[in-house]
Amino acid sequence: MLDLDQLLRLAVEQRASDVHVKVGVRPRLRVDGALREAPLDVVEPADTEQAVRHLLGHAAIRLDGGAEVDGVHAVQGLGRFRVSAFRQRGWIGLVLRRVVPGVPTLDALGLPPVAAELAAAPSGLVLVTGLAGSGRTSTLAAMVDHVNEHRPAHVVTIEQPIEVLHADKRSVVDQREVGTDTTGFLSALIGAAHQDPDVVVVADLPDADTVLAALEIADGGRLVLAATQAVGAADAVTRLIERFSPAQRAPVRALVARTLRGVLCQRLVPRAGGRGRVPALEVLIANGPVTEAVGDSDGATRLDPLIAAGEFWGMQTFDQGLANLYGRGLVTREDALASATYEPGLSVMIDEADRERAAQPMPAQPMPAEPMPAQPWPEGPPVSVG
What we know:
Layout: H1 4-13, E1 18-21, E2 28-31, E3 34-37, H2 45-56, E4 69-75, E5 79-88, E6 91-99, H3 113-119, E7 124-130, H4 136-150, E8 154-159, E9 172-177, H5 185-192, E10 199-202, H6 208-219, E11 223-229, H7 233-242, H8 249-259, E12 260-270, E13 277-285, H9 288-295, H10 300-308, H11 318-327, H12 333-338, H13 343-359
Parallel strand pairs: 7-11, 7-12, 8-9, 8-10, 10-11
Antiparallel strand pairs: 1-2, 1-6, 2-3, 4-5, 5-6, 12-13
Helix pairs in contact: 3-4, 5-6, 6-8, 7-10, 8-9, 9-10, 11-13
């Protein structure tokens, strides 16, 4: 029989990000990006039926109608877990994602200084992008915390579900959960425009209408931090515009060019010599040439070269970011190359980093100090030196 508390306790001890529960097999934990079988009994149909009622309460009834059900479950002493319940082959399946307690900071996540600069922007659109499991939620939460620490502002977040709880510091932070506090992202964005926000945070932009609402809020002088899926910074901009029909794209492209402040796109790479992962970032900053390229219907192909040449502005490609992580000893050569956008190019950068490291002079060894004269043992009780 499945002991859910034991499973979740094991997940916390193993520092797992996700827990998978499927009938007919043992539960699995995702640790550092890889699925591992948990040393527990095979899951029976009754186990998941009982677990979903415990985790989701009355909302579990919706599974009988074929719907997927999401929620949040808290366990004293273990923390909070985001729950996704669904049916597969007629049986109930569960995936639980651990919400790491506390509010992450930009420094703790290892994000570059440009992330704080984007969070401090007075207005405009900032995109936090990446594929599933790339840490976008943590980055958004850290940017909200930066605003909360440094700015007397009204922050409205729209999330599904709420994962990180923000206590008011210098800011007032109102957190709205889709399905509980509002019917959807679009309606929440429309409402937020009338709630005197300084910063609006959107955990997803699922359709063109939601994108347009976010852009109009940014164009109205507020800062919008939005999460989207993309494989790269330039791809994030292209995908945003291509949500719209060809007839709508010209005015939308102009609106994106006018409001965009920057894009952070991230991947998680195994940490060298230890457990955990570190973020590798691609960064696009909307300077003059980038803004011009975004506004040009044929300018998408110019964005990647502008990122590669934009170090002065804080920009970097994924491969430049990976080379930097390797040079600092945070990732291995093998893991960096496995995450590269263009492996041959990154290999050249890593070879250059190795040559620079080899060319650095060895630090001078200090001369041995003269031996000190023997000192009498101090009076008083014995001193432990073991």
